[in-house]
Specification:
about 20% helix, alpha+beta, 4 helices, about 290 residues, 14-stranded mixed β-sheet
Length: about 290
């Protein structure tokens, strides 16, 4: 019995050593051009990616370095999304049954751009690209004509930046939410998933929080949000308003708000009109600067 146990231990060690050697020597980065081509075809946008690597972190870890999606016909200007590092932890056993089960996907320091043009159309491509791992969960893809199912348990964003530009204002409004942390759980196609997010707006500490249930757009649905709760704590009002010309009157103060609501669609052309909700808004230390009477 002891000899059998020793044999089993030795076999396990050999398997672990073989896996470690494979991960250390296998050059997955050689498949980067094919991956880039597929990503560009799927998104219809230019995509750049510096490197793909494999490792081990409680499972097979796939890491992407410096991933970016651009809006224009070439990879120039501010990207819709730029991710310093992204990694996913694959569970090993499901791979033998052609199932890609991802314990978690983490995006490190992504910079996401969301815009509204002068006609009022909102471009959510950057947000959709950030949420694409969640949208892929539950789907089946063909790899060399072999169907492979994809399952993602959770998606996290750490230390991100959300850059909002609104061209309907004159001059345009430009706001950045920093130190953004997001967690999405209970990922399932066509079903609501749990959302928890926080960030800092004109502050060194998180002062904006959002929670709720989100259903991502799919082939059969425009997506939706429910049970949304937005909390804004002590944000300078002038950071949210369009910049004034020098010498013009400007409303100032410290904004605090608690809002609840829902959006029956995530279609960018309809979302703003479809939003509904209620809540409280308070303005502390209000004043109008540069007002001469």
């Amino acid at each position: 019995m002891k000899n059998l146990l020793r044999v089993v231990i030795v076999l396990c060690l050999l398997v672990i050593a073989a896996a470690a050697i494979f991960l250390a020597t296998f050059d997955v980065d050689r498949y980067r051009p094919q991956l880039l081509s597929q990503l560009q075809q799927a998104l219809g946008k230019p995509v750049t990616l510096d490197r793909i690597a494999l490792g081990w972190q409680q499972g097979v870890a796939v890491q992407l370095r410096n991933f970016a999606v651009y809006e224009g016909p070439d990879a120039s200007g501010e990207p819709l999304i730029q991710v310093e590092s992204a990694h996913g932890i694959l569970e090993l056993m499901p791979l033998f049954s052609k199932r890609v089960q991802v314990a978690s996907i983490v995006l490190i320091r992504p910079r996401i751009r969301v815009t509204r043009d002068a006609q009022g159309t909102i471009n959510l491509m950057g947000l959709m690209a950030a949420a694409s791992p969640a949208a892929a969960s539950g789907r089946t893809v063909a790899v060399k004509d072999t169907p492979v199912s994809i399952e993602v348990d959770s998606l996290r964003i750490e230390d991100g930046t959300l850059h909002w530009t609104d061209a309907t204002a004159h001059p345009p409004t430009d706001v950045s939410l920093t130190a953004v942390d997001v967690t999405l759980t209970d990922l399932s196609p066509g079903k609501p998933m749990n959302l928890e997010a926080r960030g800092a707006l004109a502050s060194s500490r998180p002062n904006v929080r959002l929670s709720g249930r989100v259903t991502l757009p799919s082939d059969t649905s425009k997506g939706s949000c429910e049970q949304l709760k937005l909390t804004v704590d002590d944000v300078p009002l002038e950071q949210l308003l369009p910049p004034n010309r020098p010498g013009e009157p400007q409303l100032q103060g410290r904004l605090t708000a608690v809002l609840q609501g829902s959006a029956p669609t995530l279609d960018p052309s309809q979302m703003m009109r479809a939003l509904s909700g209620s809540g409280t808004v308070k303005l502390a230390e209000p004043m109008v600067a540069n007002l001469n009477i």
